[in-house]
Amino acid sequence: MNAGKDSEATVVADSALIVILACVAGGAVLGWLVKLLARWLVTLPWAPFQGPAKLLSSFPEPGLTIGVVAVGVIAGLLLGLTAVHESLTVAVSDTQVTLSTRDETQVVERGEIALAFKDGKQLVLLGHHGRETAREETDLSAKRLSRAFTKHGYGWAETDPHDDAYRLWVPGASGLPDGANAVFAARAQALKADKGDDARELRKELARFGVVVRDRDKRQYWRMA
């Protein structure tokens, strides 16, 4: 994307500062609550974790409070940095859409996009003939995304226009191209083990078969493009 296109693009992203501050504040509060929980547990002889609770409560104040809050702040900071790194940034211009997440950037030209919509917590760019050109996890609101896409003349839908075409995948499902069931089986294992990167790569492999996939509670639903 050249400088002119960059300047014209509408960028939709979570504020890195707000995300980090929220995580840091949450970590500090959690650390303080851990101290209170430890002191409560030592008053209940039958409660679990008596050893750790007594050890924690044995530290003098104000060192105990400062320590648990500091640990919570550090944990929150690390969580916030991870969340920012993995969050999706969407840049919409008149000629293309750029999706950036983790260390990856995907550019989809306007001619490849027939429609955009949110499917649960995923932004989907639907290509022509029913194929998906992109599907990315995001907490960005549908309202913010729809404004960006419609501002630049892209079609936006509130729901998946192919929603009724999806079928639940089961081992040996009929109607799939040769080899697709094996990929589905491998992807099911990746989803079960929370291996998101592997599941993403296997989704791309299924796309080469002309199969569109979406997930619901680690179950895979599919349709043919």
Features:
flat; disordered N terminus; 10 strands; alpha+beta; single chain; 225 residues; three-stranded antiparallel beta sheet
Residues in helix, %: 40-55%
Oligomer type: single chain
Give the averaged pLDDT, no decimals. 93
Order of helices and strands: HEHHHEEEEEEHEHHEE
Topology, number of strands: 10
Net shape: flat
User: Helical region count?
Assistant: 7
Residues in β-strands, percent: 15-25%
Task: Characterise this structure.
The protein has 225 residues and is of the alpha+beta class. The chain folds into three domains: 12-86; 89-151, no CATH class; 163-224, no CATH class. 44% of the residues lie in helices and 22% in strands. It contains seven helices and ten strands. It has helices at 3-8, 16-41, 50-57, 63-86, 142-151, 180-192, 196-208; strands at 10-12, 89-92, 96-101, 104-109, 115-119, 122-126, 132-137, 167-168, 211-216, 219-224. The strands form three sheets. The protein has a four-stranded antiparallel beta sheet with strand order 1-2-3-4. It has a three-stranded antiparallel beta sheet with strand order 5-6-7, covered by helices on one side. Helix 2 packs across helix 3, helix 2 packs antiparallel against helix 4 and helix 6 packs antiparallel against helix 7 (196-208). The longest helix has 26 residues, at 16-41. It is flat, with a radius of gyration of 23 Å. Mean pLDDT is 93; it is low at 1-6.
